[in-house]
Amino acid sequence: MLNVSLEGGGAAIVNNGANVSLSQTSGLTGGWQVDQGGSLTATTSDQLGTTDMLLNGTLNLNDIALFDHVLTGNGTLNVAKNNASTAFDFGTAVGGAFSGIVNLQNTTFDIDGANTSALTNASLKLSSGSFASVADGVQNIGTLALNGGILLFNNLIDNSGIITSVGTVAANSINTTGGGTVQVNLPTNVVPSLDGLSVMELDEGEIIVTLATGAATGTGHELTLMDQNGSPINAIFYQNISNPGGSSAAAIGSFNYGMTTGNGYDGLYVNYGLTALELLSSGNDALVLTATLANNGTQANDLSSQVSGSGDLAFVSANDGSTASLSNSTNSYTGATWVRSGHLRLDADSALGQTSLLAMSTATQVDLNGTEQTVGELATETGSTLDFNSGKLTVTGGGQVDGALSGGGELALTGGVLSITQGNNGFTGSTDIASGATAHLYQVQGLGNGTINNNGILNLDNTRGILSNALTGSSGIVQLANNANIQLSGNNSGYSGLFSSDAGTVLTANSAQNLGDSRIANSGELILDTASVWDLTNSISGSGTLVKRGSGTVKIEGSVVSASLTTIEDGLLQLGSAAATSTVTLEEAPLARSLSVTLASGIANLASNVLITATGSLGGYGKVTGNVENNGNLMMPNALTGGDFGTFTIDGNYTGNNGTVVFNTILAGDSSTTDRLLITGNTAGESFVTVNNIGGNGAHTAEGIKIIDVGGDSAGQFTLNGRAVAGAYEYFLYQGGVSSPTDGDWYLRSEVEERRPEAASYTANLAAANSMFVSRLADRAGETLYTDVFTGEQKTTSLWLRNEGSHNRSRDDSGELKTQDNRYVMQLGGDVAQWSHNAQDLWRVGVMAGYANSSSSSVAQGTGYRSTGSVDGYSVGMYGTWFADGQENTGAYVDSWLQYSWFNNQVNGQDLAAEKYDSKGFTASIESGYTFKVGENTMKNATYFIQPKAQVTWMGVKADDHKEANGTHISGEGDGNIQTRLGVKAFMSGYSEQDKGKDRVFQPFVETNWIHNTKDFGTTLDNVTVKQDGAANIAELKVGVEGQLNKKVNLWGNVGQQLGDKGYSDTAVVLGVKYNF
Question: Mind telling me which PROSITE patterns this protein's record contains (predicted)?
Answer without folding.
Answer: AUTOTRANSPORTER (PS51208)
